């Protein structure tokens, strides 16, 4: 642990009392999100101050965001976090593109409103919403497997049940 200069002395320069440990020195911890956000903003501003850096940043953010969005869109029909990955790609784009910031704010507003509305509903309505979501995902998975791999899951399961 780092110590202050003259760490063996008490404040005022007196020697330490016997059996008393010196006061620990406070060390800045890098777990402060606002400070980290400020450093990131400063770094991005520094990159944007140079025309070449600005172009490179826009291209890098654009390509990275596009890759993440494309991966998310590929994963949307599959069970898992497809839409969450798409929103993550949108957040990457929002670092550099104003239209993406507006779209991300729109998405946040509507997801928050939907979540609040669902939590105010009765257990029966929430169960019906969950069942509808389950059926929708099931149909999407069934169609994806049938059209993508040529396997009809329903026919395969029915054939399996008929033989047992």
TrEMBL record:
Query: Mind telling me which Pfam families this protein's record contains?
Result: PGPGW (PF09656)
User: What highest taxon heads this organism's lineage?
Assistant: Bacteria
Answer yes or no on keyword Repeat: no
Keywords in UniProt for this one?
Membrane, Transmembrane, Transmembrane helix
Give positions of region: Disordered.
Answer: 1-34
TM spans (from-to) = 55-76, 82-100, 123-145
State if Transport is listed as a keyword: no
- State the name under which the record lists this protein: TIGR02611 family protein
